Amino acid sequence: MGIIFAIFKKEFRSYFVSPVAYVMITIFLIVSNWLFFNTYFLDKEASMRLFIARLPWIFLFFVPAVTMRVWAEEKKLGTIELLMTLPIKDFEAVIGKFLSSFGFLVLCLLLTFTVPATIAYTGNPDWGPIIGGYLGALLMGTAYLSLGLFISSITENQIIAFILSIMISFAFLIIGDNFVLYSVPDFFVPVFEYIGFGSHFMSISRGVIDSRDLVYYFSFIFFFLFLNIRSIESRKW
Amino acid sequence: MIEVKNLTKRYGMTVAAKDVSFTVNKGEVLGFLGPNGAGKTTTMKILTCFMPPTSGTANIAGFDILEDSLEVRKRIGYLPENTPLYTDMKVEDYLSFIAQIRCIPKSSRKERIKKMIGVCNLQSVLKKDVGELSKGFKQRVGLAQAMIHDPQILILDEPTSGLDPNQIIEIRGLIKELGKQKTIILSTHILPEVSATCDRVIIINEGKLVASGTPEELQDSAQGDSILYATIQAEKPEIEKVLSRADYIKEHKFIEQIDKSYRYKMIIAKSETNPGESIFKLALDKGWILSEIHKESMSLEDIFLKLTREK
After folding, report:
1. Which of A129, A159, B275, B293 has CB 3.0 to 4.6 Å from B268, enough for a Cys bridge?
2. What is the ipTM for the molecules in this complex?
């Protein structure tokens, strides 16, 4: 436990030693707020629905930027050799790093508190979908994270990690969309719908917390964390 | 303390280490010698449990590297090749991170870090980012990192590469000092380093162990023919004729002309126990003026070259 915490602390701190993290948070907040408030005062609707609905698309670019360096840089600098010859188990390193990216994501979401605050000030929102929306966004962001961390662990090039993460996340994002579902054989429709992020995200962000969606997200996250551990082990193959 | 048994490592078709076996006793400093790409780093990566061997195993401080990898790693301090470090951390944060991972109890953590700072002379850079440091300081941070948990065994992969002569002397001094209490394996391709720091030497070439012993033993074993330099003032054709007739001179080679004298390098047969005297007598006999005579024994360098070039 102490080891995971030590790795978490070091990784989390390393986000903030360079200005990059601050720039990323700023861009995230400006883009998400601007896209929302752009139409908020015209729509005259006191809900966060549109804000939440755009988060998967913002995360699509934001999360890979958070995860791309996590393992790729260790490989590039050779510090992975240092890390893995310390007396730690592979999963401890993976979990420690995962938790630190998770912490960073939570921080970013917390910093959007001004949006619900503004809505509460200007109208009388229904809090259920807002809380559900945040939960959905957190789960979806975490799913992106575990995917991005795995991708980062298979390359030593951050740019490749970034682009590959976006591409694969994008595939998961659109695969359950009607647009895709129309063009695949009937047999695959329920499969694609289940695999895609979309349907799970929509139901949670409506405020409906269904155990099936939670199971989906948790298995997605654990699956990619497992792959991450395996890919760290792969030096031994 | 360290017992390596039939270690073999293959990367696809290339064999990086082939059937390497050796032992290191407690408190010994072992020099791991070999040209670049000979398999030194591979062997070290295996010993530090970064990757497993294709076959064979090693026992370190009583633990098997494959079965008790964590226990092995707890007892080793490792300085990898090129000293990879987290460049975005401050030196003190870095050391404290390693101390935490090494599970040094909180009560003694500060003290251990302080001690390492003292031993490795890091006071002046504590607040600096590791990435800003000069090569010499990085190396010292790497050493501090490797020793922070007071390990029984240190494995140092080219600890002095890229350092300036002053720093090299400093690091060598440090290693020698440490070697009094710890078991150390250090790899290098710089030969004087070995005679300066190591109790025992292992020479590895193309993944295979080609020699092992103390630096003196290696010198003795390679002591076949000796080399003699002599500067003689006489007629050149005459010198050549006489030298080629002497049966204990296996070979002679003209090197340079200094005024009226000629300098020769001679390879003297093993059977000739006192070549200096013989040459002197020869010169006296012929009435030559001998202005230099100088015997050279095979240096570690020659042994190394001989062993690593032989196929």
Report:
1. B275
2. 0.87
